[in-house]
Amino acid sequence: MVPDVDGIQIKPKSKHIWIDHCSLCDYDDGLIDITRESTDITISRFGKVHLYNNYTRNWGIYAVCASVESQIYSQCNIYEAGQKKVAFKYLTEKVWEGVQVTFIWKSYNCVHRCRS
């Protein structure tokens, strides 16, 4: 059996973590692994994120936010929003004077539910 080897492992039920200025590559399992019921995790700047098989509900401002050349691939997830909740937040920023960058968002086989 191959061990669960990630660049960074966020253990179950972790809260309020900020990951910034990291360069990660070539790990056996994944670069950053955020697991079971972890909330309020920020991965800053130029991230490539694959969200797979998550059930997300009862979030504060938004469920997923992307900006500054980030790429998000959301696959087989459920986002259950309450009233007036935003599931996805898209931001654009000026990285340096006169240059504005955006992000790439792909979503496959996801369910987005809103309750009235």
How would you explain this protein's 3D organization?
By secondary structure, the protein is mainly beta. It has two domains: 1-43, no CATH class; 45-116, no CATH class. Helix content is 0%, strand content 54%. It contains no helices and 14 strands. The strands form six sheets. A three-stranded parallel beta sheet has the order 5-8-13, with no helix packed on it. A three-stranded parallel beta sheet has the order 6-9-14, with no helix packed on it. A two-stranded parallel ribbon has the order 1-3. β11 (93-96) and β12 form a beta hairpin. The N and C termini lie far apart (47 Å). The mean pLDDT is 78.
Biggest pleated sheet: 3 strands, parallel
State the shape. Answer: globular
Number of strands: 14
Helical content band: under 10%
In total, the number of domains comes to 2
Flag low-confidence runs.
Answer: none
Name the average pLDDT: 78
Strand coverage percent = over 45%
Record the strand order, biggest sheet.
Answer: 5-8-13
Structure annotation, total helices: 0
Q: Output the structural class.
A: mainly beta
Distance between the termini: 47 Å
Radius of gyration: 15 Å
Task: Return the string of H and E elements.
Answer: EEEEEEEEEEEEEE
Organism: Camellia lanceoleosa
Keywords: Lyase
Protein name: Pectate lyase 21
